[in-house]
């Protein structure tokens, strides 16, 4: 156990950059999970935890889980409550965070089962939306998520918190583009979720498996090239004067219809 007291400590600077900079996270191959629940989820999910940081209050209050995690890592730091607040990305810090190796999900599509159902996210930009989608996908039972490279960073603190630990457990991959992924996986029946009165209503169709459904950007929807690459167009029927749905809400409805 190492005690840190100074803001200019190299490890504290490293933590701040991991929390704020997606490019730095990619370069270092690490991200941060903050909070008792997320740290425990990371440990139980057997994610590779490289460092544990706690404040003095958490060291007394949550000694059981802290002892379990610290036994399996080389880097265990204790900081003051004020220094943890300086590090923290949350308004009400719980005094515990883990540094975790980015997760390797590259084998997800090595073997696709006949009944597999996947969701593709095309340039989804809001971290809160992505976190909610991941959380819903795990809860309802999607087999995996495909994200285009231009989606927001899945390892951003907001996504990790919003996913409620799903980021550790849900199968996902990041691909150059959804269009190219669909073209290279012809074994998947592909559906594009669009706002189009001529598209098939999602409540009226039976998904042909194995399949993948693509959901687009919050403001612009799916890229035209992605839509053109898909086998079928589907839409969520809406009443009243609503013209569109929040991306996370739309994805949640699609996930429910996909697996029900």
Verbal overview:
- The protein is of the alpha/beta class and 260 residues long.
- The chain has 2 domains: 2-101, Ribosomal protein L30/S12 (60s Ribosomal Protein L30, Chain: A), CATH 3.30.1330; 117-259, SPOUT methyltransferase, trefoil knot domain (Alpha/beta knot, 3-Layer(aba) Sandwich), CATH 3.40.1280.10.
- It is 38% helix and 22% strand.
- It has 12 helices and 12 strands.
- It has helices at 10-20, 22-28, 36-44, 56-61, 63-70, 81-87, 127-140, 157-162, 166-169, 178-184, 224-229, 247-259; strands at 2-4, 30-34, 49-55, 75-79, 96-101, 117-121, 144-148, 172-175, 189-193, 200-201, 211-215, 232-235.
- Helix 7 runs parallel beside helix 12.
- The protein is elongated, with a radius of gyration of 20 Å.
- The chain starts with a strand and ends with a helix.
- 42% of the residues are buried.
- The model has no long low-confidence stretch (mean pLDDT 92).
């Amino acid at each position: 156990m190492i005690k840190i007291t100074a803001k200019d400590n190299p490890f504290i600077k490293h933590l701040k950059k991991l929390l704020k900079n997606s490019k730095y996270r990619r370069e270092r191959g690490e991200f941060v999970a903050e909070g008792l629940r997320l740290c425990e989820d990371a440990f139980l999910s057997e994610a590779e935890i490289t460092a544990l940081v706690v404040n003095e209050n958490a060291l007394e209050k949550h000694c059981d889980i802290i002892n379990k995690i610290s036994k399996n890592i080389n880097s265990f730091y204790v900081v003051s409550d004020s220094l943890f607040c300086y590090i923290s990305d949350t308004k009400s810090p719980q005094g515990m965070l883990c540094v975790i190796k980015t997760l390797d999900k590259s084998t997800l599509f090595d073997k696709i089962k006949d009944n597999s159902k996947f969701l593709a996210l095309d340039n989804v930009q809001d971290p809160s939306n992505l976190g909610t989608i991941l959380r819903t996908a795990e809860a309802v039972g999607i087999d995996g998520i495909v994200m285009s490279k231009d989606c927001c960073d899945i390892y951003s603190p907001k996504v990790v918190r919003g996913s409620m630990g799903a980021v550790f457990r849900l199968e996902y991959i990041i691909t150059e583009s959804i269009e190219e992924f669909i073209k290279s996986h012809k074994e998947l029946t592909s559906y594009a979720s669009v706002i189009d009165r001529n598209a098939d209503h999602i409540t009226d169709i039976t998904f042909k498996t194995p399949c993948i459904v693509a959901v687009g950007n919050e403001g612009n929807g799916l890229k035209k090239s992605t839509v053109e690459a898909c086998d079928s167009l589907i839409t969520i029927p809406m009443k009243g004067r609503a013209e569109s749905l929040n991306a996370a809400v739309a994805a949640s409805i699609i996930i429910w219809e996909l697996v029900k």
